[in-house]
Amino acid sequence: MRVLVTGGSGFVGQRLCQKLIEQGHEVQVVSRHPHQVRDRLPNSCDIRDSAQAFIESPPDALINLAGESIAGKRWSDEQKAKLINSRVASTEQLVALCEQLKANGQPLPKVMVSGSAMGYYGDQGKRVVTEETIPNDEFAHRLCKQWEAAAQPIEAMGVRLAILRTGLVLDTGGGSLQKMLPPFKLGLGGRFGSGEQFMPWIHRDDLVAAILFLINHETLSGAFNGSAPHPVTNAIFTKTLAKHLNRPAIFPVPAFVLKAGLGEMSRLLLTGADMRPARLEAAGFTFQYPTLDKALEAIL
Length: 300
Description:
Layout: E1 2-6, H1 11-22, E2 26-30, H2 34-37, E3 46-48, E4 61-64, H3 77-104, E5 111-117, E6 128-129, H4 139-151, E7 160-166, E8 168-170, H5 175-185, E9 198-199, E10 201-203, H6 204-216, E11 222-226, E12 232-233, H7 234-245, H8 255-262, H9 267-270, E13 274-275, H10 278-282, H11 292-299
Parallel strand pairs: 1-2, 1-4, 2-3, 4-5, 5-7, 6-13, 7-11, 8-10
Antiparallel strand pairs: 9-12
Helix pairs in contact: 1-6, 3-4, 7-11
Family: Belongs to the NAD(P)-dependent epimerase/dehydratase family. SDR39U1 subfamily.
Pfam families: DUF1731, Epimerase
Protein name: TIGR01777 family protein
């Protein structure tokens, strides 16, 4: 199968492209800077600067992971616009590719797996969150809602659409753990605020497997929660990480400090959702790392 990936040079995308190549697929990657990302991807990946550059070799499947890091900079109005535009623009580029293929009478992709995030639900307190949960209206929700809406027109062209709302992605070499590990290794880690907020998480290998599962199962469409079946609170996450590193975790960061330093972006750390992968599990997907202990044991 020929698979086009946006965000292929990112933390998840690199592992996904590697797995696709191992399974014998032909991989196309969209990157604004093809030469800069060349050494991050398998040699056989065809890397071009836009989705439209692949018009002569139409993909059989689309995987949309592109988007500026939500925790990269403080959320000014300008940064909020960048966060939305980076996701919406890459998604619209894939929709435009399909429109062009259709206009040319060329074959359309059979499926698109498009990224979203746990932020879709906003702060949900302690209630269990499935794909049916009504979201809390805040910036993270509005960001994800616009991201998901940008992909919807592809369905009218007959392309199956699966939306994957991911939790914190865990593995070595990047993702959420990259920023957490240095203070924890020094024994300076601790919970954020009360520590009662939930942290939906997923091992990178399980996320890649979930993407491939959605690509290959022709009856699956709509929204899916991309997180492990056993989310934990921030306090439990902190204790578990410290245990695996054989370090104490006795330096909590008060909520007012995070709010003062990060502004509205502090909600990423101080709020959460007890998000469960209800639809993935109902479809028969099996997690290799269902618990945080098992995931951190493999990673650390």
